[in-house]
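job 3f2a | input accepted
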Amino acid sequence: MNAPIPKDFLWGAATASYQIEGHPLADGACPSNWHRFAHRRGRIQDGTNGDVACDHYHRWPEDVRHMKELGLGAYRFSVAWPRVVPEPGRVNTKGLEFYDRLVDALLEAGITPFATLFHWDLPAWLEDLGGFTRRDAVEHLDFYGRAVFEALGDRVKNWISLNEPVAHAFNGYLFGSNAPGKHLRFRSAFAASHYQLLGHARLVKSFHKTGKQGRIGIANHQMWYTPLRAEDPGDVQVARRMDAVSNRLFMEPIFLGRYPEEAVRGFGRFLPKGWERDLAEMREPGDFLGINYYNRATYRHAPLVPLLHGREVPTPGARRSAMWDIDPRGLQVILARVREEYGNPPVYITENGYPLPERPGADPLDDQERIDYLEKHIEQTLQACAAGSDVRGFFVWSLLDNFEWHLGNTMRFGLIRVDFATQARTWRRSASWYRDLIRR
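job 3f2a | predicted structure (440 res):
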C-alpha cells in the first residue's frame, strides 16, 4: 500500500444471515420472504436455497476460529429478523440465543462485532402485511430492533440498521430478482425505499434511548455512474438521473432532510402520499455511515426507454468481473462526495468484494483476480483518508462463499472456499493475502 494506513484502522469481513446460516426455521423461527422466494421454482439460478447454505448455524465455532486466524479486527454479521420475531409482537428468546453465543465467541477471540438488523430477510408474516411498502413496517422494525438492543447491547457496540435499502426496494419490487419478486411496481419500490429510511431513523432514536454505549449507522450501496460520452448532454443527464435515484435518494434524506430534486422530478409521484411530512424525522444519519461499493456503471441516452430514458452500456476500456464493470476510482469519488457534501461523517467500507464462479479445470483456491481487486480498492480507500475522509475500517465481502441470493451457489465471493457438499472450509490465496496485510 502506497498511502498510509490510519491509526486504529479496522480490518474486517462481512456476511449475512440468510446467506450463510442455514436452518432458517430452527428453534421457533418463522419463514422469511427469502425462504419462500428461494423455494419457488425458477427464482434461483441453480435451484438452490438457503436451507443449509454454509451451515453456519451449527459451524459458527469453526468459522470464528477462521476469523481469529485471519486476524480480523471486526466481523460484520446480520441478525435474522424471523428468528427473533416469529409473529407480530412476540420475541423468540431461543432465536436470540444463537447470536448471544456468537457475540460471546467473537469477543473472546478479540473480534469486534458489527451487527446488522435488516439484511433483506423479512419475516414472511410481515411480507404478507405488505412489508416495507406500508408504514406499519416502521413500527415492526422498531419493536424488533429494541428487542435485539436489549439482548445484545451490553456487548455489541456497533450496529447497522439496514443493509442496502436500494436493493431490497428496487430488486424486490422493480426488477423482481430479489424477494418478493415483483416486477415494475413503482409505487411499492419507492414506498419501500421511503419507509426503510424512516425505519432507520426510528432505530437510531430507539438505540440512543436505551442509554447503552455504542454507535449505529446505515450501510448504503453506492455506485459510480458515468455517461458514455461526457460531451453528450443526453448521456450526462441520464447518468445524473441514475445517480440521483440509486445513490442520492438514500443519502440526502438522512443527511440533508430532503430528496434530490432530480429524483423527485422524475419519480416523486411514486412516493407515498404525505412523504414530505416525514423528512424532518428521516434526517437522522446516525453515528457513522457504511458504504458498500463494488462497481461502476456507464449509461447512454435512450429516449424510448420509459421513465429513465437511458440504458446501461459497457464502460469503454473497463475490466469486467463476472457481474459488473470494475473501476476502483469510483470508491474515492463516492468518499469525496461524502466528505464534501454530507459533512465528512465517520465511514466504514462495509462491503467490497469480487465474484468468481468456479470453472472446470481451474484451481478454486487461486483467486489472484480477487486479490488485485481488493488491493486496488483498499488503496483508493487509503488515498481518500489521506485527502481527509474519515474512513475507519474496511470489510471484505465475504468471509465465506455463500448463497448469493438469486444466483444461488454459482457466484463465489469468499476469502474462504466452502464445499457445499461437505461443508469443508479451505482458505483461498486471498485469505492468506488478507491475513498478511492485517499483520503488516
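job 3f2a | The radius of gyration is 20 Å.
job 3f2a | closed
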